Amino acid sequence: MDLGIRGRKAIVNGGSTGMGRSAVLALAREGVEVFVSARTEDRLVRACREIAEETGAAVTPVCADHSREDGRERILAACPDPDILVGTCAPPPMTPDYRAITREDWREAIEISLLSPIEFMRSVLDGMVERKWGRIVNIATVAAKYPGEIRVLSGSTRAALANYTVAVSKVVAKHNVVINNLLPGMHHSAFVEKQFGERAQAKGTTYEQEVAEFSREWRIASERFGDCDDVGAFVAMFCSEFANYITGQSLVIDGGATTSTF
Ligand SMILES: NC(=O)c1ccc[n+]([C@@H]2O[C@H](COP(=O)([O-])OP(=O)(O)OC[C@H]3O[C@@H](n4cnc5c(N)ncnc54)[C@H](OP(=O)(O)O)[C@@H]3O)[C@@H](O)[C@H]2O)c1
Fold first, then answer.
1. What is the pLDDT of residues 46-105, one digit of tens each?
2. Arch. (CATH architecture) of 9-186+228-247
3. Residue burial 114-152, b: 16+ Cβ < 10 Å; e: rest
4. Which end of the chain is more exposed for a tag (fewer CB within 10 A), N or C?
């Protein structure tokens, strides 16, 4: 299926690995020119080179911290007029005890997972409205919709982000600019592999056993974690021409871990 976005320009913030990388790959496969930010230069440059080689698309690395003002300036200088904005970051730390969360933890989580995407949206929306075409996707977390103590740093900030995106999506929809969120559950990313690898080592089990136990405990209907590429394809779909009539939505991708009728 041709998603109708060949030749469009995209910024993907946090795109050197995990779901961000899978979003870059999916967009590049559609012929989108992609500007990718991340902080670790060698991994970022490698990811962009690999994706450019695989797809033939132009994929430009922008080494920058998107939670900082100077980083945002660098990213927007590389691509001042994106048609597409995709935002993600490393998941904020897990919090097994809400009482141990410090003010500094909150400040960091708010900067990276709430204020950064808001600042980016504010910077690019006027141009999208003027050109009468824009697509924004935030890769957030299922914990935004289904709170839990262990994901409270990640979930609370994304719940606020979802609230903001719904409000702003109503303002820009008439200009063919749509904003949506994806809410992933548990996926085999570097972050998850580290967390569950460490847990396995501490308990004398294996990564696979820990994933299976978590899947049982959290009643993941698919009885497994997802892959990061399960998310990238949906990013591309929400950035496509076909997404012109869907806005302010948050799609849960969690293998059936959560339950609600709609
Ligand atoms: N993995 C899961 O199971 C899971 C579950 C629920 C929700 N999520 C959500 O899904 C999203 C992606 O998670 P993931 O597991 O794919 O993450 P990941 O594998 O850790 O990848 C995060 C990406 O963002 C980049 N990044 C992080 N902070 C950045 C910053 N300040 N500026 C620029 N780039 C930055 C990282 O590169 P550098 O570190 O080099 O900057 C990397 O490319 C997050 O919003 C997370 O909360 C993930």
1. 999 999 999 999 999 999 999 999 999 999 999 999 999 999 999 999 999 999 999 999
2. 3-Layer(aba) Sandwich (3.40)
3. bbbbbbbbebbbeebbeeebbbbbbbbbbbbbbeeeebb
4. C
**Residue with the two structure tokens 């708010």:** 110
- The span from the CA of 85 to the CA of 121, in Å, is 8
Cα(184)–Cα(62) distance, integer angstroms:
25
Answer whether 88 contacts ligand 1 (Cβ < 6 A). Answer: yes
Report the candidate in 212, 195, 211, 229 with the shortest Cα–Cα distance to residue 26: 229
Residue of the CA atom closest to atom 4 of ligand 1? 186
Positive or negative: CA dihedral 245, 250, 255, 259: negative
Look up the pTM and report it: 0.97
Q: Is 190 in the pocket of ligand 1 (CB under 6 A)?
A: yes
Gyration radius of the chain's alpha carbons: 18
pLDDT digits (tens, 9 = 90+) for 187-221: 999 989 999 999 999 999 999 999 999 999 999 99
Atom 7 (ligand 1): residue with closest C-alpha? 141
Distance 58 CA to ligand 1 centre (A): 22
